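Predicting holo structure, N-carbamoyl-L-aspartate bound.
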Amino acid sequence: MKDLISISDLSTGDIAELIQKAQDIIANPDRYCEKCRRKKLATLFYEPSTRTRLSFEAAMLELGGSVIGFSQASSSSASKGESVADTARTVSCYADIIAMRHPKEGAPLVAAEACPIPVINAGDGGHNHPTQTLADLLTIYREKGRFDHLKIGFCGDLKFGRTVHSLITAMSRYEGVSFVLISPEELRVPEYIRSDVLGKKRIPYKETDNWDDMHDLDILYMTRVQRERFFNEADYLRLRDVFILTAERLKSAKPDLCVMHPLPRVNEIERAVDSDPRACYFKQVLNGKYIRMALILKLLGID
Ligand code: NCD
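Done. C-alpha cells:
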C-alpha cells in the first residue's frame, strides 16, 4: 500500500497494527522521537483545517521530521490554474510524504496517481476522511476495548459529513455492530453508503429523525451541519439547530456511553456536556496525533 485514500485501503489487520503502534508511541514516546530524522511531510491544504493539519504537523515533528506546505489554495499555484497532479508531482521533489485536503472529491487520489511518494487523504469534499476515522477508531478502542458488538448512533449531517461515511465503512467490518442514523430527512447518508456498505454486508441499521430513544447506544457520534457544502443558506439555517445534545438529554443514556465528535463544534453539543466523563471529543483530538504518527511510519516503511 503506497497511499491512504479511503479507509478501505486498510485491512482490519492493518488497523489493528496501527492501533498497537499508536499505543506503543503513547507509552514510549522517546523511542520514536528520531524515527523520521531527515524526512519531510508536505501538508497541501486547499480547504480550512485546524486539527487535521496541525496534528499531521505535530505528528511529524514528534517523530523528528520536518514539515513544509500551504494551508490555503490561494497561497499556492492552484490560484494560477495549476492542476492537483502537477502540484503533487512538484511537491514530491521536495518531500517524502504528502497529506492533502481538497474540496473536490477524488483530488487526493489524482495526486496519488501522479506522484511516486505516499499521499494521505486528509479530507476530500463530502466524501472521505480516513485519518479522522483512524483517530475515532483509536478512541473507540481505548474507551471500549473492542470494535465488535457496539451500537453506534450517528447524529447530524450524515449526507455531507465525510467523517461519518468513513467511520461507518470502517465499523461495518466488525461483528455484531449496528447503527442508528439520526438526521433530518434531507441530511440522510448517501445512497452508496446504504447500498454498498450497509446493504451489501447486511448490517442492521435504522434511519430516523427522532433521537428520543438513546438508552442502548454505546457510542453517539455527533456532527456539525456542513454549511460550506449547502447550496443555499436558508436550508442551512433551517437544519442546523435540529439536534443539539444537552446534559439533560444525556440523563437517559448509558453510564458508559462514549460521546464523540470530529470537531469543529458549532452548537450541536452544549458546553455543559464537556465536563461529563462520557464526553470523548477532546480525547479524539489527542488520539489523532498518535495514530497519524503510526500512519506516517507505516507509509514510510519505518518500524
Ligand atoms: C471534520 C472534517 O474536516 O471533515 N473535521 C476534522 O477534520 N476533524 C469535520 C467537520 O469539518 O465537520
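The chain has a mean pLDDT of 97.
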